[in-house]
Design a protein that fits this description.
The complex is a heterodimer. Chain A is mainly β. Chain A is 0% helix and 50% strand. In chain A, strand 7 and strand 8 form a beta hairpin. By secondary structure, chain B is mainly beta. Chain B contains no helices and eleven strands. In chain B, the strands form two sheets. In chain B, strands 2, 4, 5, 6, 9, 10 and 11 form a seven-stranded mixed beta sheet that branches. Chain B has a four-stranded antiparallel beta sheet with strand order 1-3-8-7, with no helix packed on it. Chain B is globular and about 40 Å long. Chain B starts with a strand and ends with a strand. Classes of the chains: A mainly beta, B mainly beta.
Chain lengths: 106, 125
């Protein structure tokens, strides 16, 4: 099974900051990596797939990069609506999620 | 608008069974793979099962944590997906989300979008 390690688990930031979340796969997954945003009591929302492709309607301040085993999600100029939990997911062999990163207000 | 609505959650005793349903609308249901993902209270997301479209034999996959106890199925005529959960354990307590492959091609290996709102399953005596 492919394991996904995501860090940090919590990130404190202010509106306007640029934040980066990292996800590491236990084996190479090419670019089969997705990022989701989830708010309390809500369903996850797909932000990015294939490591760097922005889902329709997702603001361009979200970006993803990486390949193989190391991936990053960057949120530029953090907005109030961006405070949420972000999870990575490999979709290379079946599916596995990272543990999640909570982006909270500093 | 694509919509997924789960139902069937509730309180159940350990060892008992429960069947979750997912009603789909707004897309050609029979061409998409469907999946179930759960989230235990305060925990991360866990993929548990997927079923391909009939064009790909309706092949199923399961996470090790539920294999042999849970069964995923679909009824394309009703635009519904199901998750039959047997021999439930306290650690199966979670919100269960129904979700769809983002694209109907390739038949597997796609991320998930959109998602239903989830249904809570509580396993407790």
């Amino acid at each position: 099974d492919i394991q996904m390690t995501q860090y940090p688990s919590t990130l404190s930031a202010s509106v306007g900051d640029t934040v980066t979340i990292t996800c590491r796969a236990s084996q190479a997954i090419a670019t089969s990596l997705a990022w989701y945003q989830q708010k309390p009591g809500k369903a996850p929302k797909l932000l990015i797939y294939k490591a760097s492709t922005l889902e329709n309607g997702v603001p361009s301040r979200f970006s993803g990069s990486g390949s193989g085993t190391e991936f990053t999600l960057t949120i530029s100029s953090l907005q109030p609506d961006d405070f949420a939990t972000y999870s990575c997911q490999q979709h290379h062999i079946l599916w596995t999620f990272g543990q999640g990163t909570k982006v909270e207000i500093k | 608008e694509v919509q997924l609505v789960e139902s069937g959650g509730g309180l159940v005793q350990p060892g008992r069974s429960l069947r979750l349903s997912c009603t789909a609308s707004g897309f050609t249901f029979d061409t998409y793979a469907m999946s179930w993902v759960r989230q235990a209270p305060g925990k991360g997301l866990e993929w548990i099962s997927s079923i391909r479209s009939r064009a790909y034999s309706g092949a199923t996959d399961y996470a090790a944590s539920v294999r042999g106890r849970f069964t995923i199925s679909r009824d394309d005529s009703k635009r519904m997906a199901y998750l039959q959960m047997n021999s439930l354990r306290t650690e199966d307590t979670a919100v269960y989300f129904c979700t769809r492959s983002r694209s109907n091609w390739p038949p597997t290996g796609e991320p998930f979008a959109p998602w239903g709102q989830g249904t809570l399953v509580t396993v407790s005596s």
